[in-house]
Please model this.
Amino acid sequence: MKKAKDMRHPTIRASIFLLMMAASTAGAQTFSGRLTSSFYTFERSDTIGVSSTHARGYQAFQFDLKNRNFMLRTFGQLENDLSTQLAGDGKVRMYNLYLQWRDTQRRAEVSVGRQSIYSGVAVGTIDGAQLKYKVKSWLRLKAFGGGLLPANQRLKLVDDVSDNFMAGGQALIFPTNDLKIGVSYFNKKQTRASYRAIRADSVGNVFEQLIEPDNQAYQFASLDARWAPKGETSLYTRSDFDVYSKKFTRAEFSARTAVTTKLSVNAAYTFRSPRLPRNSIFSLFNVENNHELEGGLYYRAQKNIGVYGNFAGIFYDQENSLRGSVGVDLGYGGISYVVRGGYAGSLNGVNGSFYYPMYSGKLMPNVMLSWASYKLDTDASETESLLSGAFGLMVRPHKLVTIDGQVQVLNNRYYSNDVRFLMRLQYVFFSRI
Model:
């Protein structure tokens, strides 16, 4: 009986599923991947006067096993603290693990397993299936559905798929070679974990109460279109509709065009309404919409020198916020000045980043510096300042191996001498089987 019970465990089921997928692609023609080992050390201030030093290690891996019709893709990460153990350390996080099939005419595509979804208004990761089909040269369809991932991305299925899932679809229409229209929809439900909290009754007696939040539910539809002729002009528009509240939560329009061979301009308008789940407690509050207007330009002075500027305003019913940036691209780096102002506080800052490839790109030092003066609130009496920088070196001893090292420093009112170190080793490979 013990053995039969173990076979029903989600982790074991997922492992068996992986072996089945691997066996189905045993005739693969190519095997490629990327291994990235990272080491990061820093000091964390837990509370006032109490800090802890951490040395984090990360091992990321990505493997692709392919033949003419099948592909097995995996992408995950293992992390651990080398000095102080943290909750969740030593566990493998799987971000992608799926088997994909394509027909020889490349009209139909089916993916089964843990995969990322990019389908118009729907963005996320599911343990499920996705189908893409090219009906005609002017029409492409997509459908997907599956359970949501566990919070720690473990290699297991979520406990209750009926209350933790995302499903939907998208239709892409190409009336002309320059015009693309997309219609998308998704339905998502997600449970929220219960927790215990300290509460007080009407006479002040303190007690512990179990809080069980309502499940979250979303249902959205979207329409978007992009017109990009062969010239230097492009237009984009999008609108999102909340099926539950029966109102639009987003409307967007943007345009970009080349005035001359050196000068291009862009403009955009965006309407946003907070995207709240059904029966959310926040729907009882007076939530404001906002409108954003943005405009910018880019001027290519020389081959490796460009000047740009972007400015935007965000408008609420009684509050406004402004942001802007101007800068220079210098080929091997750039300098920019940013400004923020309005209801969220104010900021003035200067950023600079520089790198220079040497020995045919096998060696590249880099420097990044940033300074900012800011107020967390417009009515604050004191102005804070922040200085940060990073100094690094990239070495490529072989075309398949890259080594990066970087020292990061920060100085402000709260961190008088913050120094961190990051090192990364990356190896890529490709082989024919």
Notes: The mean pLDDT is 88. The first helix runs from residue 2 to 7. The chain has one domain: 2-93+175-432.
